[in-house]
C-alpha cells in the first residue's frame, strides 16, 4: 500500500513540475501576444520537446529566434524581460505545449485559447 501511495505522490508531483504557470502567462501577454496571439495558442506552436530544445540551446534562445525581427527585439531587449521572467515564460510555454496534456480553461488571468 505504501508503494502505491508513493507512486501516486511521485506521479502528481511530476505533473505539477510543468503545470500551468500564471506568472509565465503574464510575461507572455506583455511580450508575445501582439505577434503570436493568445497565450495558449502561442504555447501550442511547439511540443514540450521542441520548447525544451529551444531553451536548452542557450540562455538567449528566444532572442536568437527573433533576431531578424526588429519589433520583437525591441520588446525582448526591454528591461522588463529579466532572467527571472524568462524562466517564468519557459515554464509556461513548456507546461502549455501542444502535447503537454494541459487543457486551458477560465480563471482570473485568462479564459480559453
TrEMBL record:
Keyword Hydrolase found: no
One example GO MF annotation: electron transfer activity
SUPFAM superfamilies found in the cross-reference section: Cytochrome c (SSF46626)
InterPro entries linked: Cyt_c-like_dom_sf
Signal sequence residues: 1-19
Domain of life the protein comes from: Bacteria
Keywords: Signal
Name of the protein in its database record: Cytochrome c
Organism: Sulfurimonas lithotrophica
